[in-house]
């Protein structure tokens, strides 16, 4: 029997081909949505020839420059935070590799396989004791999960961001929702990476809990079948399935795992762990690592950090900067309105002498009037009479 290769000290250079975390399987993260444009302001036609206003023609070049630099500052702050996050992840990976050895992996795998058989037997006993289990779940449990999802959709919204804005306030709301969605995605990815910080200890703890739940449920199938059904389908099965080794077959039928069809999500598991939007059942459990060969562990973490966390963090930084710039612009416009309103008389009288030089204020020449179009020719080209002559039949 050949010895296993020593664990790599570089989290981005696994010792074996990282099939579960192969970044070549990852599609690029979806591009961030583009903010809609405000409609152009109405142009009031000027009927007069006017001199250059006092102080010269106003320009917004400095406003644009300030906005651009403020955006860069905001992105730089987020970049600094991301460097600190990556440094922490690097330290956790090195620590985890020391604990998550080949021997530990084989022990965890053996326990999971033994529990898989026990759970399969337990489920068969449970569905025999409660033959209406499927409709019971569909009628009593699944609607509860669906109602929660509906409430979340009402609160947070669904679908793409609007493409139409008609004010800076509309645009600010657009950026706020965009930032909220970006933050939620980065938070999901961080939670998944956090779950993998100590896979040896976390997996051992989950297996211990599952083992106790198997024993406890065996005792209450006849006396408290409602609790048994809930514990098995809401906790035991999803938790057992979440940590399953991806290359090992299970004795449990899919119909017992995949329940509540409307409680679905949007998976994104190109690196192995799912960093997408998960089902409510799995969200209640929280993200968990799964049993994997230690040689593949660093590649999985590196893939998630490189292919998902980094681009998601960049998009969040850009979204936060855009929101900050729009908020600043609203504050600036609000101040301009107040200042101009309080200075209407002062601005009007600025640089006006006494008497007023009316030679500088003249009306523009009216545009030339176009001649009326000729009357249309008759369809057949025949003579229709002189339209300028009075009607002869009236005499």
- Using only C-alpha atoms, the radius of gyration works out to 35 Å
Please report the total strand number as a whole number.
Answer: 2
> Widest sheet: strand order?
1-2
Shape, please?
Answer: elongated
* Beta-strand content estimate: under 5%
Write a structural description:
There is one protein chain. By secondary structure, this protein is mainly α. The protein has a domain at 68-155 and 177-338. 56% of the residues lie in helices and 1% in strands. It has a two-stranded antiparallel ribbon. It is elongated. The chain starts with 47 loop residues before the first strand and ends in a 32-residue tail after the last strand. Mean pLDDT is 85; it is low at 1-18 and 383-395.
What is the element layout, followed by pairings?
Elements: E1 48-49, H1 61-99, H2 102-129, H3 133-156, H4 168-195, H5 199-220, H6 225-242, H7 254-257, H8 280-285, H9 297-342, H10 344-349, E2 362-363
Antiparallel strand pairs: 1-2
Helix pairs in contact: 1-9, 2-5, 2-6, 4-9, 5-6
In short:
The chain is mainly alpha-helical. It contains 10 helices and 2 strands.
From the structure above, extract its key features.
395 residues; 10 helices; disordered N terminus; 2 strands; mainly alpha; disordered C terminus; elongated; two-stranded antiparallel sheet
């Amino acid at each position: 029997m050949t010895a296993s290769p020593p664990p790599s000290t570089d989290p981005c250079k696994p010792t074996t081909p990282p099939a579960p975390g192969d970044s070549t399987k990852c599609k690029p993260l979806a591009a961030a949505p583009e903010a809609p444009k405000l409609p152009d302001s109405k142009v009031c036609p000027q009927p007069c020839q006017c001199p250059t206003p006092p102080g010269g023609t106003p320009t917004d070049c400095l406003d644009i420059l300030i906005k651009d630099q403020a955006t860069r500052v905001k992105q730089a702050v987020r970049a600094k935070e991301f460097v600190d996050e990556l440094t922490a992840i690097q330290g956790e990976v090195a620590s985890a590799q020391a604990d998550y050895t080949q021997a530990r992996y084989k022990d965890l795998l053996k326990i999971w396989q033994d529990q898989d058989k026990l759970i399969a037997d337990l489920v068969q006993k449970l569905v025999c004791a409660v033959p209406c289990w499927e409709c019971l779940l569909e009628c009593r449990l699944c609607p509860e999960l669906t109602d929660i999802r509906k409430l979340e959709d009402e609160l947070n919204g669904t679908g793409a961001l609007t493409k139409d804005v008609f004010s800076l306030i509309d645009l600010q709301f657009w950026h706020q929702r965009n930032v909220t969605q970006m933050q939620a995605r980065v938070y999901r990815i961080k939670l998944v990476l956090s779950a993998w910080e100590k896979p040896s200890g976390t997996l051992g703890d989950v297996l211990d809990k599952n083992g106790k739940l198997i024993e406890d449920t065996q005792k209450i199938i006849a006396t408290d079948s409602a609790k048994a059904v809930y514990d098995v389908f809401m906790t035991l099965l999803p938790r057992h399935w979440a940590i399953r080794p991806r290359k090992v077959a299970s004795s449990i039928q899919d119909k017992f795992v995949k329940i509540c069809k409307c409680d679905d999500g949007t998976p994104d598991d190109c690196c192995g762990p799912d960093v997408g939007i998960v089902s409510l059942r799995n969200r209640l459990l929280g993200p968990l690592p799964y049993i994997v060969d230690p040689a593949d562990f660093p590649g999985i973490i590196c893939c998630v950090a490189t292919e998902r966390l980094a681009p998601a963090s960049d998009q969040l930084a850009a979204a936060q900067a855009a929101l900050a710039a729009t908020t600043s612009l609203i504050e600036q416009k609000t101040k301009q309105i107040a200042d101009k309103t309080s200075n209407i008389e002062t601005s009007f009288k600025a640089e006006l002498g006494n008497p007023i030089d009316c030679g500088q204020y003249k009306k523009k020449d009216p545009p030339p009037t176009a001649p009326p179009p000729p009357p249309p020719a008759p369809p057949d080209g025949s003579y229709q009479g002189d339209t300028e002559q009075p009607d002869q039949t009236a005499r």
